[in-house]
Amino acid sequence: MLSNLLENSKLFRHLVEDLPVGIYIVDLERRIRFWNHGAERITGRLSHDVVGHALEDAMQVCDRRGNSLSGEHCPVTMTLNLRKAQRCTAFSLHKNGHRTAVRIHTLPILEYGDAIGGATVMFEEVFAHREESSGPAMYGCLDTNTGIPSRRLTRAVLSECMAALEQSHGGFGLLRIRVLGLEEFRAKHGPQSVVPFLRTAAHTLRHSLEAENFLGCWDENEFLMVLTSASPMMVAMTGEVLCNLLNHSEVSWWGDRFRIEAEASYTVASAGTDLETLLREMKPSHPIGTAKAAAVASNNSGRLRG
Question: DSSP character for 213?
Answer without folding.
Answer: S
